[in-house]
Amino acid sequence: MTYNFALSAILIMFTFGFMILLNYSWQNRETPISVSYGLGVIAASFYTFGYAFQLVGTTVEQMIFWIHVQYLGIPFSPLIWVIMILQFTGHQRLITKKNIAILSIGPLSSLTFHFTNEWHHLFYRSMALDYSQGFPLIVLDRGPLFYLHITYIYSYYLVGIYLLIRMYLKAARIRKKEGNKQIVLMMIGSFCIFIPPFIHSIGVFNIPIDISPFGLVISGLFYFWGTYQFNMLNLSPLVMKKVFESIHDAVLIFEIDNTLRSYNNSADILLKPFPDKKRIGCPASQILLPFPALLKLIEHQSDPHNVTIRSMQLEDRYYHVQFSYIHGRHNKPVGKMLILHDITESVRYEESLVQQSRQLTELNMFKDKMFNVIAHDIRDPLAVLVNLMELVEEDMQEADLIKRQGSQELLEGMGEQINNTFQLVEGLLEWFHTQRGGMLFNPVIRDLGDAVQKTMTMMNVKLNSKQININSTIAKDVYVYADKDMLDLIIRNLLSNAVKFTEIGGVIQLSSEVLQDKVVVAIRDTGQGISVDEASCLLQDEFPISKRGTAGEQGVGLGLSICREFVHLNGGDIWFDSSLGVGTTFYFSLPIASNPAIDKTVVKEEIV
Are strands 469-472 and 440-441 parallel, antiparallel or unpaired? Predict the structure, then answer.
């Protein structure tokens, strides 16, 4: 028996062995690369199965038939292989219908030229049998179309090998010591597919039989090993690369000598000062220079088995930083890795909670003090009202003229007490309104002079009752940008205080001055003035003390607190000057609106 039967048996055996790989591809058909791999196995099976029977053929006709069987797979093998390589190396975006149609021109042309060779003899010029080996072998005289067929096969091969080598070099930058077994096995398998046909075509070793199918057998063995031992298809480098790039945390990978070897998209924010092309291979001492804390972590961590986790601030962001070594064979360190998880939002939310907690604590203390004062401020005038009402009832029982006049005096006293109580409750309600977040902030362009004149008109009764001379030099062409209701309340409260603490026959002067982008309003009175002790408590966060006016006017002491909050909310400031026995001047500033025709957007937001 000649050796052609042994070679034929080997090819048939491995053809059926290919079915194991085909079954594996079918089980993993959800992944595109497994589908390509399965189609490649089918194409290779046509080649090996057809050549197995060609080796044992005895006539030209039999051999031509089995050559036809081989060419059901040979033209498409390069196309399927290059698609698989594109998927394996992460270039799936290139696998479009248009590109596949273009790449299919070569395989379809070869298939057509081969099966129509009897009409043109440009693929094979002639065919004959050779018995020099003790069994018949077909000798093919190749024509120009055959070499065109070889050209497109090896052009596909060169493209695929280039992509594999490029991928291997990129992976080696990260893991120089270990390399990447998946890529290596894919490269070896690819070499076994295309090198034997090249050797046979140029006739270097003068081998009488075609060794190309046996190259497919060897390639199948390497693919079989890579698939089952290293999950070459299931865990392809493409998948790992996509996982690495999709991580939201910033990941920086360094060599053991602290040079940068890889990073993901999220790390770009840390590497902005360096151009993309200069980042890889750059020492950590340069690339982390703006971040001394990270550089210290990279350069001074000596224990390779220790994982360091810290929280730190880098510029205006906060990060949870994890540093660890990358280990290779025998647990030997081969690199370093930094992972930075952005916790800025969490930190700011925590700070906001702390701030809110502090404000709630202060407000609760303020409430306790306030209710302690209110309990006395409201109880006393109400008690007087009750007593006055009892006296009125007694006097009304005796309806003579004299006692009617006495009742009139009592009624006037009641009216005064009722008015004071009303002002007290009004002030409390205004303050509670702001503290509970019930007031809307609606800034508009407002004529300051007009607002002052309206408030002065509303206060004519109080001014006349104390014979106070009031004068305003604020022109009507001064415009501010503020909330209308808040501006009215600020002016009303400050004027009320000026009236309250000014003696009968005193003077109140209002004026304004433009300083840069603000209008400063001054309300000057000739009242009692403010002592040093009282001045230290005004406009502070502590609960203010209520004080009676020159005519016995009462209040809850919240007016200035409300003014301060409203002025600040409108983007201004408030302060005062005072001399005891001479008078007091209160100042407040508001943003200027130089052109009243400007159509400013009205901002509405709930005060929280």
Answer: unpaired
Residues 6+ apart with CB under 8 A from 14: 48, 217, 220
Angle (CA) 66 129 197, round 5°: 60
pTM for the full predicted model? 0.46
Structure tokens at 199: 């050797």
Considering the domain architecture, whether residues 461 and 565 belong to the same structural domain is answered as: yes
Helix (H) or strand (E) holding 447: strand 443-447
The 3-state DSSP class for residue 608 equals: coil
CA atoms within 13 A on the CB side of 468: 30
Tens of pLDDT along 195-222? Answer: 888 787 776 677 888 888 888 888 878 8
| pLDDT tens sequence across 257-286 | 888 877 888 887 777 777 776 777 788 888
Instruction: Of 92, 80, 27, 46, give the one whose Cα is nearest residue 227.
Output: 27
Domain count within the chain = 4
Residues ≥6 apart with Cβ < 8 Å to 228:
24
* Domain with 364 in it: 346-435
The burial of 572, by beta-carbon neighbours within 10 Å (0-12 exposed, 13-18 middle, 19 or more buried), is given as buried
Show the tokens assigned to 115.
Answer: 């099966």
Distance CA 55, CA 514 (A): 106
CATH number, position 256: 3.30.450.20
Predicted confidence at residue 602, as pLDDT, reads 39
Which two structure tokens, joined as six digits, stand for 442?
Answer: 């609606």
What is the rounded distance in angstroms from the CA atom of residue 465 to the CA atom of residue 446?
Answer: 30
Residue-level pLDDT at 598: 42
241 pLDDT tier (thresholds 50, 70, 90): low
Helix (H) or strand (E) holding 403: helix 401-435
Nearest CA to 337 out of 368, 308, 372 is that of 308
Q: Tokens standing for 103?
A: 């790449």
